[in-house]
Design brief:
The structure holds two protein chains of two kinds.
Chain A: H1 9-19, H2 26-33, H3 40-54, E1 60-69, E2 92-93, H4 96-108, E3 113-118, H5 125-140, E4 146-150, H6 156-164, E5 169-171, H7 181-184, H8 190-202, E6 206-208, E7 211-213, H9 219-232, E8 236-241, H10 258-271, E9 276-279, H11 283-296, E10 302-304, H12 316-325
Parallel strand pairs in A: 1-3, 1-10, 3-4, 4-5, 5-6, 7-8, 8-9, 9-10
Antiparallel strand pairs in A: 1-2
Helix pairs in contact in A: 1-3, 2-9, 2-10, 3-10, 4-5, 9-10, 10-11
Chain B: H1 21-29, E1 44-48, E2 51-56, E3 60-63
Antiparallel strand pairs in B: 1-2, 2-3
The chains are: A alpha/beta, B alpha+beta.
Bound molecules: iron/sulfur cluster and zinc ion (2 copies).
The site of one zinc ion (ZN) has 6 residues of chain B, from loops.
């Protein structure tokens, strides 16, 4: 009998991703995303093994806050902070004491990363000076948490300024597959986003990049997106699940079905064995408590705790309890993954 | 939802009219209040890692610890 080549995608992934640490290709990811519900448990198990093998059991915990909320000139169709849609979100600036308090609340959960976010196309001088003052004040408060920023598209000069401020990681999401992006955003391009990410990487900041699942993309586009992120090679990939926001063009979209969302989490882990894969916005709505646990056992190794930018999350204590139950230690500040 | 509310804190329409069951679910889980329950004005809302602060230009500030919201 001649040896048959194993074509079952889970068996192939076990060899390729788990044993050799090579992410799946776009075609292979599509096969994973098309697996039936009867294979889901097996798939999640493999994604978990991959995460344990290539990342270890630690979970990176992060908190985020909105420094400048609403009134954004861009038209990302999922976003309640775009000034172009009749969303109930009104513009607001968080003052420095509020920022310091937020960082302190975040550190108190054991989180090692605190991300300062602004709803802008890109930062102006006022925003950058607020960020600079904010970071200084957080340090003067005795808070040693690592600082990340998410301030939109950057110029080279702004990249350099953020490096000089000691910003550890920059978040800028590609949001969705390149082929789907023009249906989601018309005021800037996917390539402009990619360019910012390139500069951030070259300047030596860690790159956090991900997107939102459930914006009308096809399953082929989910595979495309995961492959494109793998090509970028981020240090962290943040996975959000659409929260249909009142007043936005996606208001009437359905929340992604839980099993589909889990399949997507596992596929992203099989596309990218090594980066932090972070459970972010929409996880409460999409997964519920049980699904959140399944996601943590299906490839996820980082979470945002507490509230999001404009939505509320689960209380941080509940997530920390879950991690304890799962015997997944929270990553300490001086530890690298 | 606050039983004395005149307006729905999520969608801002009259609390006594229409169905706010979905709004109530969202307010109990992921949405901070966006509209003042007393006058229906859109509030300025700041979400922070552990809470939220909402400001109505007429009725002042409420926070996630104040009892009369949600
Ligand atoms: S650039 Fe950011 S804040 Fe602005 S509309 Fe897009 S997602 Fe929202
Ligand atoms: Zn309502
Ligand atoms: Zn009012």
């Amino acid at each position: 009998m001649t040896a048959s080549v194993d074509t079952d995608i889970i068996a192939v992934a076990r060899e390729q991703v788990l044993e050799r640490g090579e992410g799946l290709s776009q075609e292979q990811l599509l096969q994973v995303l098309k697996l039936g519900d009867d294979r889901l448990a097996e798939l999640l198990q493999l994604a978990h093994e991959v995460r344990m093998r290539w990342c270890g059991p630690e979970v990176e915990v992060e908190g985020i806050v909105s420094l400048k909320t609403g009134g954004c000139p861009e038209d990302c169709h999922f976003c309640s902070q775009s000034g172009r849609f009749p969303s109930p979100v009104r513009s607001a600036w968080l003052d420095i004491p509020g920022l310091v308090r937020s960082a302190r609340e975040t550190r108190a959960t054991g989180a090692t990363e605190f991300c300062i976010v602004a709803a802008v196309r890109g930062p102006d001088a006022r925003l950058l000076s607020q960020v600079r003052e904010g970071i200084k004040a957080i340090r003067e408060d005795g808070n040693d948490i690592q600082i990340a920023c998410s301030l939109g598209m950057l110029t080279q000069e702004q990249v350099d300024e953020l490096v000089a401020m000691g910003v550890h990681r920059y978040n800028h999401n590609l949001e969705t597959a390149r082929s789907h992006f023009p249906n989601v955003v018309t005021t800037h391009t996917w390539e402009e986003r990619w360019e910012t990410l390139r500069m951030v990487r070259e300047a030596g900041m860690e790159v956090c990049c991900g997107g939102i699942i459930g914006m009308g993309e096809t399953v082929e586009q989910r595979a495309e997106f995961a492959a494109q992120l793998a090509e970028l090679g981020p240090d962290e990939c943040t996975m959000n699940f659409l929260i249909p926001q009142p007043g936005t063009p996606y208001e009437q979209y359905e929340v992604v079905e839980g099993r589909d969302a889990l399949r997507t989490v596992a596929a992203f882990r099989l596309a990218m064995p090594r980066p932090l894969l972070r459970f972010s916005g929409g996880r409460e709505l999409t997964f519920g408590d049980l699904g959140t646990k399944q996601g943590m056992l299906g490839g996820i190794n980082a979470i945002i705790v507490g509230n999001y930018l404009t939505n509320l999350g689960r209380p941080a204590a509940q997530d920390l309890e879950m991690l304890d139950e799962l015997k997944m230690p929270v990553k300490a500040l001086n530890q690298t993954l | 939802m606050d039983v004395n509310a005149e307006f729905c804190a999520r969608c801002g329409t009259a609390a006594a009219e229409g169905d706010h069951a979905h709004c109530a679910v969202m307010l109990a889980s992921i949405d901070p209040p966006r509209f003042c329950v007393e006058c229906g004005r859109r509030m300025v809302v700041q979400v922070t890692p552990a809470g939220w602060v909402a400001n109505c230009s007429r009725h002042g500030e409420r926070t996630s610890t104040s009892p009369s919201v949600g």
